[in-house]
Specification:
Blueprint: H1 3-25, E1 35-40, E2 43-49, E3 65-68, E4 73-75, H2 84-93, E5 99-103, H3 106-112, H4 123-128, E6 134-135, H5 145-155, E7 160-163, E8 167-172, H6 175-197, H7 207-217, H8 220-238
Parallel strand pairs: 6-7
Antiparallel strand pairs: 1-2, 1-5, 2-3, 3-4, 5-8, 7-8
Helix pairs in contact: 1-6, 2-5, 3-6, 6-8
The structure holds zinc ion.
Zinc ion binds next to loops.
Length: 242
């Protein structure tokens, strides 16, 4: 591995640490049960991932593990998540995906139980309308390649798959996009739950308006702007130095 590769890998590990801190800050952690991974630049068959037994906000340069697409550890000594197969099988199926997040945000989990289709009742909803499949095979952890592959199949070409009574698996081109999409989905689920609980079905703008907004909200530069803001907001609230 060259010095240049090492620099890229260190930068990726840093982005994983920062993404984990933001996810925990925004309440996406469920004790130690959430996980995030990122594909290694230049080695598409390898990905780095948060380890078991720690929170999203406890990822360090030393406890990150590297896996191959079989879910085997190729670098690192920490305990691996049993659900790493969600990540390995999504990376196997989706060459365009460079970051995967699995988490249990409260409103997303609640929404997964309603059987409702995601509607564009909010701007976040506009991102996921007609693009949010639901994995219903099991409430249990995804501990094997077969189940991981089933999650990846259910995800299909989309960016998110709801896992009924369990959580969400999000797949995106990078860590900033993946975190912002998780935040957008959680807010969309909350808005739709509140709207439908009020006794209304919700009202939507025409599809052309919804798709035009989706294009704007999912531009790579928009994800970076939003993620950078979330990092600043977290640091200000926690009094953390950059
Ligand atoms: Zn889970």
């Amino acid at each position: 591995m060259t010095d240049h590769d090492m620099t890229d890998l260190d930068a990726l590990k840093h982005s994983l640490i920062e993404a984990g801190q933001v996810l925990e800050f925004l309440g996406h952690g469920d004790m130690t049960r959430g996980h995030i991974s990122a594909r290694v630049p230049g080695i598409p068959g390898h990905f780095i991932m948060k380890s078991h037994s720690i929170g999203f906000d406890e990822i360090t340069m030393d406890n990150i593990l590297t896996f191959d697409l079989e879910g085997e550890v190729v670098d690192g000594t920490a305990r691996p998540h049993s659900e790493r197969f969600i990540h390995s099988e999504i990376y196997r199926a989706r060459p365009d995906v460079n970051c995967v997040i699995h988490s249990h945000p409260m409103h997303t989990v609640a929404f997964s139980n309603t059987g409702q289709k995601m509607l564009a009742l909010s701007q976040g909803g506009a991102i996921f309308k007609d693009a949010l499949p639901v994995f219903t095979d099991t409430i249990d952890l995804v501990r094997g390649k077969d189940t991981g592959a089933a999650v990846a199949r259910c995800l299909g070409p989309h960016q998110a798959v709801l896992m009924r009574s369990h959580g969400i698996s999000m797949a995106a081109s990078g860590t900033a996009a993946c975190v912002v999409l998780c935040v957008s989905l959680e807010e969309a689920c909350q808005v739709q739950l509140v709207t439908t609980a009020s006794g209304h079905d919700g009202w939507e703008f025409p599809d052309s308006d919804i798709l035009a907004l989706r294009d704007k909200l999912t531009r790579p530069d928009q994800f970076e702007v939003n993620f950078d803001y979330l990092v600043r907001k977290m640091r200000m609230a926690l009094g953390r130095a950059a």
